[in-house]
Amino acid sequence: MNAEIIAVGSEMLTPFRQDTNSLYLTEKLNALGVAVVFKTIVGDKRTHLVNSVRQALGRVDIVVISGGLGPTEDDLTREAVAEALGRKLVRDADLIANMYARAAARRITITRNNEKQADTVEGAVILENTRGTAPGQWLDIVHGKYRKLLAMLPGPPPELKAMFEDQCLPLLKDALPERAIATRVLKAAMIGESQCDARIAPIYTQYPDVETTILAHLGDIQVNLSCRKPLLAQAKLRVDELTGRIEEELDDILYSSQGETLEQIVLYYLGMHGATLAVAESCTGGLIAERLTDIPGSSRSFLGGAVVYSNELKTKFAGVNPELIARHGAVSGEVAAAMAEGIRRQCDADYGLAVTGIAGPGGGSEEKPVGLVYFAVSGDDSTETLEKRFTGDRSRVRSLAAQQALDMVRRRLM
What we know:
Elements: E1 2-8, H1 21-31, E2 35-42, H2 46-59, E3 62-66, H3 77-85, E4 89-91, H4 93-105, E5 119-121, E6 125-127, E7 136-143, E8 146-153, H5 157-175, E9 180-189, H6 193-204, E10 210-217, E11 220-229, H7 232-250, E12 254-256, H8 262-273, E13 277-281, H9 287-293, E14 302-307, H10 311-318, H11 322-328, H12 333-347, E15 351-357, E16 372-378, E17 383-389, H13 394-413
Parallel strand pairs: 1-2, 1-3, 3-8, 13-14, 13-15
Antiparallel strand pairs: 4-5, 6-7, 7-8, 9-11, 9-12, 10-11, 15-16, 16-17
Helix pairs in contact: 2-3, 6-7, 8-13, 10-12
């Protein structure tokens, strides 16, 4: 069965508020074997909300609406659902009595406009709100020729989650046929989206029952696999089989088949080898250290390092010979290697990682343009260097450089 989530609230159509409820609801629905195929955000305008509900009822089996159940004039979910279904709104006297009783017990004075929260769509089952005042509603109806399930839930996340877990989830389980979804997230570093798809499309197109989606972000490719079957074991078998074939094709380009981040994988390999890492960052300005230290427990393998932005600090903290900088320039493979070797010695680490480059927008030349970055990884046995040229603005160059640096460490540890 398919579902649509409708998030109600004009505030979510501004840059200042995000719809986080839909992420939670999607996870819970997927666990029931329900695919969320549409998500809609609609403002507090009745005609727009009525149209959104009608469209949703016309194209999915399950509609979950969050928000718009409060006491104010712009809380219009109940009215819109009633209009979309051609049903009456009935004010529930018991709900009003309970509302005033709860307020009295808490010594809170409530105004008359709160009573609109007791308006129920004809035929709806009331969902108690244990965290707030606005009750939810559940409808299991025949709309046109088809059975439809519709839930109205409050907008505040604590209220929505409690209501969904305690009351909506049991109703959904009773109404739904048993189906399960198996998912997998594969990640590859420093490969283009089109290049990745060209290599794996001949494989995943052989699995029409597994939905495959490729997402790209700054030096990172995410391949999402999803399969629905009556039994979880059946779905998992198909996803695992496809995963194995993609892993074989992408080989060491693929760094994760369980959704881990690149920095998690780097720390995993360091831990597996019982090794430590230190970094000397120039153009990345601490981005690599930030990503590594964002992982709990990273101190077991990541010792630290230095942001050596100036030539003087490259010498002071990473031990780079000033003559080497004068001869080759701060942005060079030779200086990157010296930085990696120096920071490894200074921190007494097993591996040293260094990055030096021109992030822009200024500072480039014909010989060394903006986007030119050198990397180096140093260990006891050898020092490897790498030259890359990235395009884009300063932020993009720095982010790509940090990603490339971590991937270089991963490959060295492999």
